[in-house]
Amino acid sequence: xxxxxxxxxxxxxxxxxxxxxxxxxxxxxxxxxxxxxxxxxxxxxxxxxxxxxxxxxxxxxxxxxxxxxxxxxxxxxxxxxxxxxxxxxxxxxxxxxxxxxxxxxxxxxxxxxxxxxxxxxxxxxxxxxxxxxxxxxxxxxxxxxxxxxxx
Length: 151
Description:
This protein has 151 residues and is mainly beta. The chain has one helix at residues 19-26, and strands spanning 3-7, 28-36, 39-47, 53-60, 68-71, 73-74, 84-91, 101-110, 113-117, 124-130.
């Protein structure tokens, strides 16, 4: 079974009050993340500063001893606010995520500049835990389901 990733931050920052203002101020912000069998999916909002832009996610499973970049793809139609664009990403995580801590930050390149959302310097962190298949778990006492009758 796929690993369970537990966010160590609110998984839907885009639902919090003032989100669009934070995008306006910082140029890029994580909108939401969700773990699924394919990996970690998420969305990023960026301030629409120019037509050409590149959004990616830099992530690690080993405390930045190594890292990888995953591209984010533009998601039309744009948000109704008229000033931001949405990009979606997928971090393809395998069994290695089960016992690791995933850390990531979002990069936005536009008009010769580069902007990062690294969760206010803490990176976005998710703790991985292997899912327990149904029917397993803590060992049970073989007599735990037995009835005891007192007469």
